[in-house]
Structures are given as structure tokens and as C-alpha cells.
Specification:
The complex is a heterotrimer. Chain A is mainly alpha-helical. Chain A is built from seven helices and no strands. Helices cover 77% and strands 0% of the residues of chain A. The N and C termini of chain A lie far apart (73 Å). The longest helix of chain C has 34 residues. The chains are: A mainly alpha, B mainly alpha, C alpha+beta. Chains B and C meet through α4, α8, α9, α10 and α11 of B and α3, α4, α5 and β9 of C. The complex binds heme-A (2 copies), dinuclear copper ion (CUA) and copper (II) ion (CU). Dinuclear copper ion binds next to loops of chain C.
Chain lengths: 198, 561, 358
């Protein structure tokens, strides 16, 4: 009997399970992706169905700067993580700061765009189906950028205060997943809203 | 005699209980992050809502007992079915299943808690708040003007009836917010369940050795991510429409009513499987133990579950056969829907094979499970009738549909919830529920269930649409409706007996001991109720039935797997 | 369920008169009466099992097939389950030793995967056939077109070929199987979703704002067919009833000719007409040939030619009309016609005018 158990115990000696943070974050991302998919579908479904103007072609400009910034911020956050993994806390803080800056530029770009749409073209969420779906989709994404920036900003604060070290690399990594996700969503939004939809 | 890994837990008593202040106890429950307590909070909360939603059903049944009845006004009736459906699905079905999941999963996989205990508490409380908000609409629904009202748009709240134009006041807003919050809670709990199962299994418990209950919860939770998202998104859109003047579902501005239907049912159909998979999970644990055999075809069961999860994402438009999908759409969704019966059939047959050659003991959990088998079979077959699109052109939105889904929601899910209650209550409380009262509960409820819901098919076949507050005397529906309403009395009596059984057994029930059913999964290896930390020592398992191995060292399961 | 309880519960008024009377009058053995009574229970005016027109017939045949297959599955599977729980129950004298532990069998798993798939092939193919027969039927040249518009709690019917507009009571010509004249209904809604369902004639079809659906009916037997709105549409959803009159072709032609005429101008009702035209009624109702051109409520041009008002909820009698105009919500709670606060005298006059609109 005890021999029996011993044998079996041996075979299960190695017991490694995936990391909680990563798995949890992936779950969250799947759930959020489902929400975004529905908003994207609604956007596509209502393309060209507005009963009145303005139309996307008339008012939308390609947000090139914002897009470049947001996409490159995926790289910088990645560098922040690898730096922290190598225990290079100062370097990591630098990369983090750059990430926050790039994200901030993106948000500012959206703000400028919206301001122009509202005050120059009179397009609000109530104007027509384009306004409804545009502000909802882009706004939903922007709100995720804000949440991401908030969390990255917090990490940056810790870093500046010198409270960040290699043992936190793992958490920063999980956070970076979220940021990559926000970026990936932007790629879809960009293609649908500024590509397909214009 | 016993291997030390699990034996340690067996010898542990529940922690010494010293008298506490009443307020301390309340405070403890409010601030707890223990998965067992949160599980019980979920279950208790759901039971309270079961009584409330059942009461709403009672009001409907009284109103419909005879034609041209004036027991309640049409407005009240419409609120009753909306609140009944919404409550039963979001505030009874979901929380009670999450409750059992929360309680059982860490115990069954040999973990000490859920992966994220604080998130767990947060999820519960936000769902709970959603329910309160929904019910607050009875008082606050109409805003400043005093007389409150609950929403009356039906549980799937079809656009454009929910637009400001057709639903002024705030009642629909409460529906949106209440369900929205419960959705957030559901995603939180599902995330927790998946992470717990993936990351916290005890030593030796490979995925292939995991009991079926966590497996099914894993699939259910994965479906929650994919299904709740669309509902949340659709509700955000509806909220934008109502609060900000957007036009998603505003037909005057070119919005589409059909879009809402698609979004709702992309959620709604997977949702019904989200509700039923945990019921299957309970059956997977209970039927083997009372047949005294292992589950037949473990891997087929897992495979079938995963298949059901996948296919169910692609069948939603069978709720829309009458909206004019066109021949291609109707044909596709007929096919997709019918295919689900294959993996579901595999489950039925494996349960049957588990019974076969066993020594079946008819304890209360088992008789509920057996009734579940028959009732689910019937419900599935009426579902197949509905899935044949032309047949559905006649049956859709009739009482036949109401009969179909109560056969699943009550005949399958509620029955398995009762079974689970009788089966795991001893673990949770340390006390056995009374078998005598249990049998009374079972038989009264079964008589009532069949009086109400068997006969509900008939007026459906005879042209009675659902959601009507009254009907004409010349249609010949009266007899059947009267029978249904009588059945409702039996159901209510049975549920009162159940409540009494719980209260009484909690106080004076027989001591359960750690393993009253001579079962095989890990939760029965620790004390009843389990200590805060679940297991004194983290268990190590070598097969799907660790306690079987313990009890039968000469022929452990691990030799056969 | 004992028959005694059935009988005790049964209210004779609920029955189609014929069946109730035979059961009462003939003094046959109790079981014959019981059988008659039970069949009476099922032969109701809106049963899906007494089809009287083509789509309903086709659907009926399909449903019989589906019912037969599912019943067979039920008997087989439930039979096995019943056998298992009886045969393999733990009996009083049994030893407490556990039975042989069986873990599964791949062959048998394959078996009960393949058999259902085979059944499904049959089910699916027969269903797909009926779908295409119904939805891809060619429209004959002499089909009748009707536009159906759902409103919160009433139905609007337009006959584009003849310009007739009416409400709540749909008239169709019976169709000769040799030279079918089916009716094609183009459906939409003015407000929220509704669904048109007359079980004896066809399956249901939803009426959805911003969307046009088409359904067709090919009725063979003249008569009155009942149904009701089958999609929840608000407070008075339960009172949004449907009446379809299938007329012989000659009767139908007569009916159309009559409906095409402008409204009757009965001098005896002149006072009522004046009162009507000077009340808000005209904002919502149309009476051809008068200043009333409202579109929110039913067309009243030939109101008196209808058997019912308020979408089949109320018999069309002068008393009922008067009470309706006085306070619609007392008769049909939730109706969107407001209370007009007319004096008793005005009420009499307007009612008289309504009654004159033949
Ligand atoms: C837990 C809940 C649950 C479950 C499990 C199911 C299971 C199924 N349901 Fe049901 N359904 C609901 C809950 C559920 N349903 C609800 C709530 C509604 C109404 C919502 C509303 O409108 O308010 C609804 C409505 C609904 C409709 C829409 C009706 C309408 O509104 O017009 C349809 C149509 O296809 C349908 C079909 C099915 C089918 C085919 C299954 C299948 O999964 C069943 C499969 C099972 C079997 C078939 C039996 C076992 C199999 C065998 C023994 C193998 C051999 C069998 C064959 C080869 C056929 N359901
Ligand atoms: C899990 C889901 C669930 C459950 C368990 C039930 C349970 C019951 N349901 Fe429900 N039902 C739905 C989900 C469910 N239902 C849904 C989704 C709808 C569609 C809604 C819509 O159309 O929008 C619906 C609709 C629905 C209708 C159709 C309404 C209509 O279309 O007009 C009817 C009518 O009879 C009905 C009846 C019942 C009855 C009699 C029970 C019984 O089984 C209930 C038994 C329970 C009790 C009887 C409680 C007893 C307790 C007491 C009496 C004690 C009370 C004491 C205190 C509170 C102190 N239900
Ligand atoms: Cu119109 Cu219900
Ligand atoms: Cu479904």
C-alpha cells in the first residue's frame, strides 16, 4: 500500500501550474474582446445607414500620429517589462514614462479630433447613426486607454518612488498584456472606422 | 493505513466556535473573502429571489386561471412576467450556480481558496446590488412622480419597445442597470473560477483527473466571457440611447430592431447552456455516487461538454425564426440547433450507462436527479420540435415555448439545484437534511411541476401566445390554464416544505460527519463544515476518485485510468 | 388527472357550442361522453392541428413527422431509463458491496453518437425541404397583395390594387387549388414589434419597424379564422386579436367594391358627423370623403361593416361603440386612443354617426 503511493507520488513530483495573474488577465481580455466585437459589428452594420449627414468620408481624418504613438507604446511597455526583469528599475521607469507619454499623446489626439467633430462639423452622438456608433466605439476604446494609462501611471509613480524592483516584473508583465490588448483593439478600430468606414 | 497526504484533513474538527456578538457575525459575513462563505451568500441570496420570483409566477397563475380574469391589471401582469423572467435567470439561476461553484470548486480540486478572493467578494456584492437595484424599480421606477413601477418590457426587452418613446419613465433604466451590474459580477466570478481551476489544482490532479464538476464549470465560465460581453455591450448601447439620445435601436433614425434581437440572443442562447451545464455538473457527481459506480465515459462527457459550449455559440437565431431571416438563415440555424442534440444525447446516454449495472440508492438527491433525467429528455425533444423552423413558425412565442423552457429551467435546472442542495448541505452545515421532508418536497413538487408544465404544452398547440394577461373564453384554453394554476399550488407547498426542511435541519438535523454519502471526491475528505483553510494538508491525488483509492487500496482507480 | 376533476373545472361556455351540446343532449354511456368531451377540448378555433390553408397544411405534415420521431426517441430512451432504475435498484436484501466498476466503452460511445446523427439527417432534410417550399414558392400572377401594418394594439390592412384601406378585420378570397389565388402579405410595423399569427392558416410572421417581411396564405375554405398578435408589444398585447374572413371569390369582390366607396353620408347622422369633424377624432382617424384624414388610429370609413372594434376585442354594437368612444381604456386597458371627455349628447350623436358608416 505505502509502496503503491510512493510510486505514484514520484510520478507527480513535478507540479507546475500556469500563473494566476496571466490566466486571469487572459480571461478578462476575452470578455472585453467580446464587448468590443459587438460594438465593431454594430459599427459595420450601420455603415452608410445614417439618414442624414455628416458622413464619415466628409469629416474623418486619419489619426496617423495617434496611431503611431499608441502602437509604439506597445514596444516601450515591453521594454519596460524586460528591463524590470533584468532588475534595471531606473531603465524600466524610463520606458514606463515613455509609454505613458505616448498613450497621452494618443488620447490628446482623440480629444482634438472630437473637439473638431463636435464644434466644426456639429457631429454628436445624437446626430445620426454614424455619430452614435462612432463615439460609442472610439469612446469605449478611449476609456480603456484611460484605464490602462491610470494603471501604468501608478506603476510609474512606484518606479519614481523607487519602490519597483525585479520582483514586480511579473505583475508589470500582466499589466502589459492589457496594454497590448488595448493596442490590438485600436488596430481593429482603425481599420474599421478609418479604413473600411471611410 | 491511509496515506498521510489526505488523511490529515480527515482528522480535523471544525474550528472551535465560541459565542459571538450578533453584530460581529453580520460583519464577518459582509466582509468575508472566504470562498465557502461567499458561496453560501450566493446561494442564500438566490433562494430569497427564488421565493420572490416564484411569488410573481403565482400572481400570473392566479390571473390566468380563468379567462377574462381581473385579479391584476394588464400593466401589473406585464411587470410580473418581466420581473419573474429576469429574476429567475439573472438573480436565481446565475447566483445559485456560482454559489455552488464557489463553494465546491476549491474543495474538489484540493485548493484552499479561490484564485482571487477579493475579486470574489466584489463580484458577489456587485451582483447583489444589481438585484436590489432591479427591485428598487418597484419604488423608484417612475422617477419623481411618486408611483413607482417595475419594468414591463419582457426579459429579452425587445427594441424598440424599450426606447424612451415607448417606455417613458425609468423602469427600463432599472432593468438595464440591474442586469448590467449582475453581468459584471458574473464575469468576475467566471474569471475567478477559470483561474482557480487552471492554476490551483492540488498535486497530481491533472486535467484528466479532475472531477467532472470543475470541468463543466470551466466550460460554463468560458462561455460566460463570450456570452455576457454581447449582453453588456447591447445594454450599453441601449443605455446610450436612453440616457444620451443615441440611435442604436431607434427605428426613427434608421436604427434596427433586429440588431437588438441578434445581440440579445447571441447572449441569450449560450446563457441557457451556461445555466444548464452546472446542473449537468451536479448530475455528474450525484448519479455515480448513488449508483455506486464511476461515471461512464468520463472523456466522452468532457468532450461533449466542450462541443456543446462551441456549438451553442452558433445557434442563437433559432429564437428568431419568425423575424424573416430568409430561407438560408432559417435552414442554417435549424441545422446548427439540431446538431446540439448529438453531444447532449451523449450525456444522456452516459448517465444511463452509469445507472446500468449499478446498485441505485434512492436518497433524496438521487430521486431529484432521476426526475431530472426524464424531464430533461422531454425538454430536449420539445426543443428539437422548436428547432424545425416551420414548426416553430407555429409554436414560437406560444405557451409551447413556455412549457419547453420551464421543462429545462425548472424540470432540469431547479431539480438539479434541489438535488445539489440535498447532496452538499451536509458538507456546508454539518447537518443532514431530513429525508422524510425531502421525499415530501420531491413528490409534491413533482406533482405540481407536471400539473403545471405538462399541460402548458397543450394551450400552446392550440394557439395560446405567451405574455398575454388574459384570454378569450371561446378559445378553449381555460381548462388547461386552470390545471396549470392548480399545479402551482403544489409547487409552492413543496418549496415551503423545502425551506422548512433547511431551517429545521440546520438546527436539529442529524450530524453528517465528513462523508455521509460514502462518496469519492476530495470535498468529502475534510470535516463538515470544512475548516477555514479547507485542508489541513494540501492533498495529493492519483486518480479521478481519490477517496475511492483510499477506501479500496487493493483496487484503486489509478490502475484503470 | 381524473376526469371528474376535468368536468368539475370545465366551464361549458368555453367550448365551441357544437361539442358542448352533443355531450349534453345524447344520453350515451359516460365514457362515450367523456371521449366526446375530450375531443371537444382539442378542436378549438386556433389549434395548429386543424390546418385550413396551405402553409398551415405543409407545416402540419412536417410537425406530424417531427412529433413521431421525437416520440419514438422518447419512448426508447425513457424506456431504457425506467428499466435501469427498476432493474438496478438497491434492493432490501442486497449486500452492501459495490457493484462492478465500469469506466466506459469507446464502441458504445460511437454507437450513440452515430445513431442520433442518422436521425438528424432525416429530421433536417425534411425540415429544409419545407422551409424552401414555403419561402421560395413562386408568386402566381393573380395573387392578391395586401399590406399589413402593425400598430400598438390594432392592425391596418391595405389592398394596393384597389386602394382599399381597412382595419382589424382582414378579408381574403378563398383560393381554388386548380388556379390558386394566394394572398401575399407585405408586413411592417408603425411602432414596435408585432407578430401575425392565425394558426389555422399559416405560421406566424413578425412585423418589425424598418423591415419588410412577406408571408403568403392560400386558403381553400371560406370561413372566419381567429388568431392574435404573438409578439409582446405593450400593455394591450393580449387584446390585439386577429380576425381573418376568407370569402368566396364572389363575396370578396362584393366586399372590395363596397369598401372602395366613400363613406355613407346619412342625413340622420349629420349632427354626429359635425361633432366628429369638430373633435380631435379627425387627427387620428380617416373617414373617406370627409375632413378626417388622421393616420394614427384605424380607418373608420366603413366601421359599421365590421363585426368587432378595437382589434377584435369588443363586439361592434351601438352600446359598445358609445362606451368605447366615452372611455376606451375601460374596455381595452392600455389602448392608445385617449378619453375624449365628450358630453352625453355628443356621445350619442357621434355614436349614431359611427353606426351609419356602413
Ligand atoms: C437551460 C435551458 C435550455 C436548454 C438546455 C435548452 C435546450 C434546447 N432548446 Fe431551448 N429554450 C430555453 C432554454 C433552454 N433550451 C429558453 C429559456 C427559451 C425561451 C427564451 C424565451 O423566448 O424567453 C428556449 C427557446 C428555444 C427555442 C426558440 C423558441 C421560440 O421562441 O420560438 C428553440 C428553437 O429552436 C429551442 C431549442 C432548443 C434545443 C434544440 C435544445 C437542445 O439543446 C436540446 C437537446 C437535447 C435533446 C435533443 C435530448 C437528448 C438527446 C437525445 C436523447 C439524443 C437523440 C435525439 C435526437 C437525435 C433528436 N429552445
Ligand atoms: C429559472 C428560471 C425559472 C423558473 C424556476 C420558473 C418557475 C416558474 N415559472 Fe417561469 N419563466 C421564466 C423562468 C423561470 N420560471 C422565464 C425566463 C420566463 C419568461 C419571461 C418573459 O416572458 O419575459 C417565464 C415565464 C413564465 C410564465 C409565462 C408568462 C407569460 O408569458 O405570460 C409563466 C406562466 O405561468 C411562468 C410560471 C412559472 C411557475 C408557475 C414557476 C414555478 O415553478 C415557481 C415555483 C416557485 C414558487 C411557487 C415559490 C414558492 C414560494 C412561496 C409561495 C413562498 C413565498 C413566501 C414569501 C416570499 C415570504 N413563468
Ligand atoms: Cu401587437 Cu403584441
Ligand atoms: Cu436557444
Amino acid at each position: 500500500m505505502s509502496a503503491h503511493t510512493a510510486v505514484l507520488t514520484q510520478s507527480t513530483g513535478e507540479w507546475q501550474l500556469p500563473d494566476k495573474g496571466k490566466v486571469g488577465m487572459i480571461c478578462l481580455i476575452v470578455a472585453e474582446a467580446a464587448i468590443f466585437i459587438i460594438f465593431v459589428l454594430a459599427y459595420i452594420f450601420y455603415l452608410g445607414k445614417s439618414l442624414s449627414g455628416p458622413t464619415p468620408a466628409e469629416v474623418l481624418k486619419l489619426p496617423v500620429l495617434g496611431t503611431v504613438c499608441l502602437l509604439s507604446s506597445s514596444l516601450t511597455v515591453h521594454f519596460a517589462v524586460t528591463a524590470l526583469e533584468r532588475n534595471a528599475a531606473r531603465l524600466s521607469a524610463l520606458w514606463l514614462a515613455l509609454t505613458v507619454l505616448l498613450g497621452g499623446i494618443f488620447l490628446a489626439g482623440t480629444a482634438v479630433e472630437w473637439h473638431e467633430l463636435i464644434y466644426k462639423y456639429g457631429l454628436t452622438i445624437r446626430t445620426n447613426l454614424f455619430g452614435t456608433t462612432f463615439y460609442s466605439l472610439v469612446g469605449l476604446h478611449a476609456s480603456h486607454v484611460i484605464v490602462g494609462l491610470g494603471m501604468l501611471g501608478l506603476a510609474l509613480l512606484f518606479a519614481v518612488a523607487g519602490k519597483l524592483n525585479g520582483s514586480h516584473a511579473h505583475r508589470l508583465n500582466v499589466l502589459s498584456y492589457y496594454w497590448h490588448f488595448v493596442d490590438a483593439v485600436w488596430v481593429v478600430v482603425f481599420i474599421v472606422v478609418y479604413g473600411l468606414g471611410r | 493505513m491511509m496515506p498521510p497526504q489526505t488523511a490529515g484533513a480527515m482528522t480535523f474538527d471544525s474550528p472551535p466556535s465560541h459565542p459571538k456578538l450578533w453584530l460581529d457575525a453580520v460583519n464577518e459575513w459582509f466582509t468575508t473573502v472566504d470562498h465557502k462563505r461567499i458561496g453560501m451568500l450566493y446561494i442564500g441570496y438566490a433562494l430569497v429571489f427564488l421565493l420572490i420570483a416564484g411569488l410573481e409566477a403565482a400572481v400570473m397563475r392566479i390571473q390566468l386561471a380563468v379567462p377574462n380574469n381581473h385579479f391584476v391589471s394588464p400593466q401589473v401582469f406585464n411587470r410580473m412576467f418581466t420581473m419573474h423572467g429576469t429574476t429567475m435567470v439573472f438573480f436565481v439561476g446565475m447566483p445559485i450556480l456560482f454559489g455552488f461553484g464557489n463553494y465546491l470548486i476549491p474543495l474538489m480540486i484540493g485548493a484552499r481558496d479561490m484564485a482571487f478572493p477579493r475579486l470574489n467578494a466584489f463580484s458577489f456584492w456587485i451582483s447583489a446590488f444589481g438585484g436590489l437595484l432591479l427591485y428598487f424599480s418597484f419604488i423608484g421606477g417612475d422617477g419623481l412622480y411618486g408611483a413607482g413601477t417595475a419594468p414591463d418590457v419582457g426579459w429579452f426587452a425587445y427594441a424598440p419597445l424599450t426606447a424612451k418613446l415607448f417606455s417613458p419613465g425609468h423602469s427600463t433604466d432599472y432593468w438595464i442597470l440591474g442586469v448590467f451590474l449582475s453581468g459584471i459580477g458574473s464575469v468576475g466570478t467566471a474569471l475567478n473560477i477559470v483561474t482557480t481551476i487552471v492554476c490551483m489544482r492540488c498535486k497530481g490532479m491533472t486535467m484528466a483527473r479532475m472531477p467532472l464538476l470543475p470541468w463543466l464549470y470551466l466550460v460554463t465560465s468560458a462561455m460566460v466571457f463570450i456570452a455576457i460581453g454581447p449582453l453588456t455591450a447591447a445594454q450599453m448601447m441601449l443605455g446610450f440611447d436612453r440616457f444620451l439620445g443615441a440611435h442604436f435601436f431607434d427605428v426613427q433614425a434608421g436604427g434596427s430592431a433586429v440588431l437588438w434581437m441578434h445581440f440579445f440572443w447571441i447572449f441569450g442562447h449560450p446563457e441557457v447552456y451556461i445555466l444548464v451545464l452546472p446542473a449537468f455538473a451536479f448530475a455528474n457527481e450525484i448519479i455515480p455516487v448513488f449508483s455506486r459506480k464511476p461515471i461512464f465515459g468520463y472523456s466522452a462527457m468532457v468532450g461533449a461538454t466542450v462541443l456543446i459550449g462551441f456549438i451553442s455559440l452558433g445557434v442563437w437565431a433559432h429564437h428568431m425564426f419568425t423575424v424573416g431571416l430568409g430561407p438560408a438563415g432559417n435552414t442554417f440555424f435549424t441545422l446548427a440547433t439540431m446538431i446540439i442534440s448529438v453531444p447532449t444525447g451523449i450525456k444522456i446516454f452516459n448517465w444511463l450507462a452509469t445507472l446500468w449495472g449499478g446498485k441505485i440508492r434512492f436518497a433524496t438527491p438521487m430521486i431529484f436527479s432521476i426526475a431530472f433525467l426524464f424531464q430533461f429528455l422531454i425538454a430536449g425533444l420539445t426543443g428539437i420540435m422548436l428547432s424545425a423552423a416551420p414548426f416553430d413558425w407555429q409554436l414560437g412565442n406560444s405557451y409551447f415555448v413556455v412549457a419547453h423552457f420551464h421543462f429545462v429551467l425548472v424540470g432540469a435546472i431547479l431539480y438539479m439545484i434541489f438535488a445539489a442542495f440535498y447532496y452538499w448541505f451536509p458538507k456546508m452545515s454539518g447537518k443532514m437534511l431530513s429525508e422524510t421532508l425531502g421525499k415530501w418536497h420531491f413528490w409534491l413538487f413533482t406533482i405540481g411541476f407536471h400539473l403545471t408544465f405538462d399541460f402548458m404544452h397543450i394551450p400552446g398547440l392550440m394557439g395560446m401566445p405567451r405574455r398575454i394577461y388574459t384570454y378569450e373564453a371561446d378559445r378553449g384554453w381555460a381548462v388547461w390554464n386552470m390545471i396549470e394554476s392548480i399545479g402551482m399550488i403544489f409547487q409552492a407547498a413543496a418549496i415551503l416544505i423545502f425551506v422548512w426542511n433547511v431551517v429545521r435541519s440546520y438546527r436539529h438535523g442529524e450530524e453528517a460527519g465528513p462523508d455521509p454519502w460514502d462518496a469519492w471526491t476530495l470535498e468529502w475528505s475534510t470535516a463538515s463544515p470544512p475548516p477555514h483553510y479547507n485542508f489541513a494538508e494540501e492533498p495529493v491525488v492519483h486518480s479521478r476518485r481519490p477517496l475511492w483509492d483510499l477506501k479500496h487500496p487493493q483496487a484503486p482507480d489509478s490502475d484503470y485510468e | 388527472m381524473s376526469l371528474a376533476l376535468f368536468l368539475a373545472l370545465h366551464d361549458m361556455d368555453d367550448m365551441p357550442a357544437g361539442h358542448a351540446m352533443t355531450a349534453m343532449q345524447t344520453h350515451e354511456s359516460w365514457w362515450r361522453r367523456a371521449i366526446q368531451w375530450v375531443t371537444g377540448l382539442f378542436s378549438t378555433p386556433t389549434s395548429i392541428f386543424s390546418p385550413q390553408a396551405t402553409p398551415a397544411h405543409t407545416i402540419f405534415s412536417l410537425s406530424m413527422l417531427v412529433l413521431a420521431i421525437t416520440l419514438a426517441i422518447f419512448l426508447a430512451v425513457a424506456g431504457l431509463m425506467l428499466y435501469a432504475i427498476i432493474r438496478f435498484r438497491h434492493r432490501a436484501g442486497d449486500s452492501n458491496a459495490d457493484p462492478t466498476q465500469v469506466y466506459g466503452s469507446n464502441q458504445i460511445e460511437v454507437l450513440w453518437t452515430v445513431i442520433p446523427i442518422l436521425i438528424l439527417v432525416v429530421l433536417f432534410l425534411s425540415t429544409a425541404r419545407v422551409i424552401s417550399v414555403n419561402e421560395q414558392a413562386r408568386k402566381p400572377a393573380n395573387a392578391l397583395d395586401v399590406v399589413v401594418i402593425g400598430h400598438q394594439y390594432w392592425w391596418e390592412y391595405r389592398y394596393p390594387a384597389s386602394g382599399v384601406v381597412t382595419a382589424n378585420e382582414l378579408h381574403l378570397p378563398a383560393s381554388d387549388p386548380k388556379a390558386p389565388t394566394p394572398t401575399y402579405m407585405t408586413m411592417s410595423s408603425a411602432d414596435v414589434d408585432h407578430s401575425f399569427w392565425v394558426p389555422n392558416l399559416a405560421g406566424k410572421m413578425d412585423l418589425i419597424p424598418n423591415k419588410v417581411n412577406v408571408m403568403w396564405i392560400d386558403p381553400h375554405k371560406p370561413g372566419l379564422y381567429l388568431g392574435q398578435c404573438a409578439q409582446y408589444c405593450g400593455t394591450a398585447h393580449a387584446k390585439m386579436l386577429i380576425r381573418v374572413y376568407v370569402d368566396s371569390p364572389a363575396d370578396f369582390a362584393k366586399w372590395i367594391a363596397h369598401q372602395k366607396m366613400a363613406a355613407e353620408d346619412d342625413p340622420a347622422a349629420a349632427e354626429g358627423r359635425l361633432a366628429f369633424e369638430h373633435t380631435a377624432c379627425v387627427n387620428c382617424h380617416t373617414v373617406n370623403g370627409t375632413s378626417a384624414k388622421g393616420k394614427f388610429g384605424p380607418d373608420l370609413t366603413h366601421l359599421a361593416s365590421r363585426d368587432t372594434i378595437a382589434s377584435g376585442a369588443i363586439r361592434n354594437t351601438p352600446q359598445n361603440l358609445r362606451q368605447w368612444i366615452d372611455d376606451p381604456n375601460s374596455m381595452k386597458p392600455g389602448s392608445l386612443m385617449p378619453k375624449m371627455n365628450l358630453s352625453s349628447h355628443e356621445l350619442d350623436a357621434i355614436t349614431a354617426y359611427m353606426v351609419s358608416l356602413r
